[in-house]
């Protein structure tokens, strides 16, 4: 029997890779819903190709355009933030959470509450409300499978029955495009240079996060929620080749790692087929061709965003949520040419110093903290410009 599938964020980098895999084996998968924010053409084309039941555009002003693009296709059109959540509420065996940023939280929560399988790429939702999400997944009996390559690697090596066997979880980081740059050089980097990742092709926001190493910081917090080892047993290792996707060190000294091509279709396929495996079109890893694997400690002085994330994780409570929201606004300001590259971490630090709410007890409280952190960040951006 075919598996029913929904993709939240179907037009992005992860969404398109997911579509590529399911379209290669279209008899194994039936598409329930696809969502996007503004890319009407990309959404409508994907919905037609996969014969989706429903296509949802987040920007309500684009409803007419979507309806027109889907005329005579048999695909139902819907629009608006609420309609994305309604799509996430439709029964589907497997849901991909690939919306970028905090906007992904409510749709992913809706999918988790259905108690089916959720493949999660949207790390920002876990950073903002990981405790509440994991609790919702447990209560509903949902299966949460990590898509992020590092967490997918850890998931494949982790002793799920007995986490006490783990001495350390080691997340690898490519180091991003500015790995060997000085602070002076980084100060002059443009958005175009920052989104040019050496190994991975990704959306703009995560590419900038990879350049500041905030991506690795968000991933530390993501790992904290996904794997019950506590923050003391989480660490980061820079590995420029992006071949070893992460490692789990056991108490006896054994270290298990997952290796693979730098192609997100491998971890996505793992979550699509889990607990089985499926074939992918990824170029197989050729270690002789790679030749050598390098590792080095991350530099927390040149990359202060990673230090801020370590600190937010140690302090806990609402700190990770404030870090995440202010980073999202600061990255958007950098991409819009409003601030320089080094200002991103500086702004996040300023906001963390100015806004320290208590830990959220509900998703609504987490979203309020997120909104207030964005306001404080806008304020910090305006003061900086003045
Ligand atoms: P992207 O920018 O390419 O795509 C984002 C998707 O979200 C698009 O479909 C877009 O329409 C939708 N979207 C954007 N804003 C929205 C909003 N306000 N409401 C509803 N939908 C909205 O991003 P991406 O690179 O595919 O990343 C998606 C998520 O996966 C991010 O959280 C990212 O950190 C994570 N991730 C990505 C990669 C990667 O290789 N691209 C790897 C690991 C994790
Ligand atoms: Mg990652």
How would you explain this protein's 3D organization?
This protein has 386 residues and is an alpha/beta fold. Helix content is 47%, strand content 15%. Helix 6 (123-140) links the parallel strand 6 and strand 7. Helix 6 (123-140) packs across helix 15 (319-335). The structure holds nicotinamide-adenine-dinucleotide (NAD) and magnesium ion. Nicotinamide-adenine-dinucleotide (NAD) binds at residues 9-15, 36-37, 39, 58, 84, 98-100, 103, 121-124, 148, 200, 202-203, 205-206, 264.
What structural class do you assign from the helix and strand content?
alpha/beta
Number of domains: 2
Which compounds are bound in this model?
Answer: nicotinamide-adenine-dinucleotide, magnesium ion
End-to-end separation: 61 Å
Helical content, roughly?
Answer: 40-55%
Radius of gyration: 20 Å
State the name of the first-level CATH class of the largest domain: Alpha Beta
CATH topology of the largest domain: Rossmann fold
CATH H-tier superfamily of the largest domain = NAD(P)-binding Rossmann-like Domain
- Describe the biggest sheet? 7 strands, parallel
Estimate what percentage of residues fall within beta strands: 15-25%
Which sequence of strands runs across the widest sheet?
A: 4-3-2-1-5-6-7
| pLDDT < 50 runs, ≥5 residues | none
Shape: globular
- Mean pLDDT, as a whole number? 97
Tally of alpha and pi helices? 17
Named CATH architecture of the largest domain: 3-Layer(aba) Sandwich
């Amino acid at each position: 029997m075919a598996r029913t599938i929904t993709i939240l964020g179907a037009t992005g980098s992860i969404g398109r890779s997911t579509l590529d895999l399911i379209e290669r084996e279209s008899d194994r998968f039936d598409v329930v819903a696809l969502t996007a924010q503004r890319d009407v053409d990309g959404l409508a084309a994907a919905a037609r190709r996969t014969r989706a039941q429903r296509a949802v555009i987040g920007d309500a002003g684009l409803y007419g355009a979507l309806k027109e693009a889907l005329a005579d296709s048999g695909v139902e059109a819907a629009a608006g933030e609420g309609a994305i959540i309604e799509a996430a509420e439709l029964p589907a065996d497997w849901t991909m959470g690939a919306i970028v940023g905090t906007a992904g939280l409510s749709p992913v929560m809706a999918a988790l509450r259905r108690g089916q399988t959720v493949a999660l790429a949207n790390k920002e939702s876990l950073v903002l409300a990981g405790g509440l999400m994991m609790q919702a997944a447990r209560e509903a009996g949902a299966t949460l499978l990590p898509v992020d390559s590092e967490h997918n690697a850890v998931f494949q090596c982790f002793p799920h029955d007995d986490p006490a066997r783990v001495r350390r979880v080691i997340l690898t980081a490519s180091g991003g495009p500015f790995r060997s740059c000085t602070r002076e050089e980084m100060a002059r980097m443009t958005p175009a240079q920052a989104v040019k990742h050496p190994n991975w092709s990704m959306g703009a926001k995560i590419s900038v996060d990879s350049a500041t190493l905030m991506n690795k910081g968000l991933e530390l917090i993501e790992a904290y929620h996904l794997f019950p080892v506590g923050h003391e047993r989480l660490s980061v290792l820079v590995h420029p080749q992006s071949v070893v996707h992460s490692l789990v060190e056991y108490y006896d000294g054994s270290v298990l790692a997952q290796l693979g091509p730098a192609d997100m279709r491998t971890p996505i396929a793992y979550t699509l087929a889990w607990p089985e495996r499926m074939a992918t079109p990824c170029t197989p890893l050729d270690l002789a061709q790679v030749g050598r694997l390098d590792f080095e400690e991350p530099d927390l002085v040149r990359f202060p965003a990673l230090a801020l994330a370590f600190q937010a994780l140690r302090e806990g409570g609402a700190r990770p949520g404030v870090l995440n929201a202010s980073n999202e606004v600061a990255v958007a300001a950098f991409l819009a040419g409003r601030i320089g590259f080094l200002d991103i971490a500086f702004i996040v630090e300023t906001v963390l110093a100015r806004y320290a709410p208590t830990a959220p007890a509900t998703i609504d409280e987490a979203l309020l903290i997120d909104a207030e952190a964005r306001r404080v960040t806008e304020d910090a951006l305006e003061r900086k410009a003045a």
